Amino acid sequence: MNPKEIDHIGIAVNNIEKAFEFYKSLGWKDLKTEIVKSEKVRVGFISFGNNVHIELLEATEPDSPIAKFISKRGEGIHHICIRTEDVKEDLQKLKSKGHRLVNETPKEGAKNCWVAFVHPSSANGVLIELSQERES
Ligand code: ZN
Questions:
Q1: What is the whole-number distance in angstroms between the Cα of residue 96 and the centre of ligand 1?
Q2: How far is CA 88 from CA 1, 39, 48, in A?
Q3: Structural domains counted in the chain
């Protein structure tokens, strides 16, 4: 078996601290952020009791994918991340079925994970991130 779960929902925002004000109003207190160089973003994860997170994404460079996304569509849901045990294997499976991948191989993502993106044209208009915990 290869159990998969929703890991997080990524939301593109102009400013993480500003965006977090909404969650503060609902009782969240502090937000840890980190920079993901490979994606040119700063991210902050908001935890929920069921182990699903919301990932706030802020561009760190004008040519960041998040900056491009916001300039086209404004702030909003950017991607859904599926936690998996083997990103490489999943990429292979998807490729063999003709699905369009953004990343052919996993790369370093936030939270010490290997990640890869699947193109929205293969997933009903939604950008899908696959994420696997790295062994440390
Ligand atoms: Zn993500």
A1: 24
A2: 16, 19, 28
A3: 1
Cα 15 to averaged position of ligand 1 atoms, centre (Å) = 16
Ligand 1 geometric centre to CA of 119 (Å): 14
pLDDT at 28: 96
Residue 60 CA: distances (Å) to CA of 14, 75, 91, 131: 10, 15, 28, 22
Domain that holds residue 55: 3-133
What are the per-10-residue average pLDDT scores of the chain (136 residues)? 86 98 96 92 94 96 96 97 96 97 94 94 97 86
Q: Considering only CA atoms, which of 58, 55, 52, 47 is closest in space to residue 18?
A: 58
- For residue 48, the domain's CATH number is 3.10.180.10
Q: Give residue 131 CA to ligand 1 midpoint distance, Å.
A: 8
